[in-house]
Amino acid sequence: MNDLSNFNQSEANVDAEELSKFAELASQWWDPNGEFKSLHDINPLRVDFIEEQADGLFGKSLIDIGCGGGILSEALAQKGAKVVGIDMVEASLDVARLHRLESGVDVEYALSTAENYADNNAGQFDVVCCLEMLEHVPSPASIVDAAAKLAKPGGLLVFSTLNRNPKSWLLAIAAAEYLFGMVPKGTHDHKKFIKPNELVSMIENANLVVSDMTGLHFNPITQQYFLSNNNVDVNYFVVCRKPMLNCAVNNP
Predict the structure, then answer these.
(1) Which stretch is the leader sequence (predicted)?
(2) DSSP H helical segments within 63-137, as ranges?
(3) Which residues line the annotated binding site?
(4) What's the pLDDT score for residue 226?
């Protein structure tokens, strides 16, 4: 059960059913063959992609929005980033903190919405990550706005989510959840998937500049995941930058 005493649930950008769903699965975050196996499988790809886009992570401040049990957060910290992970599922954060003790990887975790954390930590991060989370909240645009607020001028932001179309329903829900059991049943709601043009619109409305978009794909023959910009039909990443402040000084 989450302690939401510091949050107004009527205002917080959270879905109680989503929180409950992930709370029930929290104990399995670090089982590489459990319910979150697919996240473990794609994590090296995600980390390498973020590191490449950021031109290295060593010494950079980074926030992982919707960090869950810390799979991505720890891997990014191992690359030398100074990582903060935030989530609204207290049970997941408990697992993340316990694993931190076991692994010795230095990550700071906090129970917070992205919006609340941004209010108190605006402009603090070189890199802002929000992966596989936007499709689980009532207002993804609000998360994008908060992410933009958290980034330093010139900072890098990386989002990933799922496209909304018949192909994504077939592969991400019918196949992945029910046919092959790659993710827990009920993990996703197709109505909450986000088309790339919708996400780009949210990003541009937050005064961010898109720099890259690529798809995450699965080869059923080799059982391997890979990145390709040939299409973004199902899972996809969008990379953007927060513009630098205009520091020009007018001559008298």
Answers:
(1) none
(2) 71-78, 90-103, 114-120
(3) 46, 66, 87, 131
(4) 96
Number of helices (H), then strands (E), belonging to the chain: the values are 8, 8
Following CA atoms 54, 56, 61, 67 in sequence, which dihedral angle do they give, to the nearest 10 degrees?
Answer: 70
User: Which residues are CB-neighbours of 154 under 8 A, at least 6 positions away?
Assistant: 241, 242, 243, 244
In this prediction, residue 157 carries a pLDDT of 98
Quickly tell me which residue has 């996240």 as its tokens. 39
Beta bridge partners of 159: 130, 238
Average pLDDT over residues 217-246: 92
Q: What is the pLDDT of residues 66-95, one digit of tens each?
A: 999 999 999 999 999 999 999 999 999 999
- What does pTM read for this prediction? 0.89
Q: Cβ of 42: how many Cβ atoms within 10 Å?
A: 22
Q: Across residues 156-174, what is the average pLDDT?
A: 89
How big is the chain, counted in residues? Answer: 252
CA gap 242, 89 in Å, rounded: 28
Show binding-site residues for S-adenosyl-L-methionine: 46, 66, 87, 131
The distance of Cα 229 from the centroid of its chain, to the nearest Å, equals 19
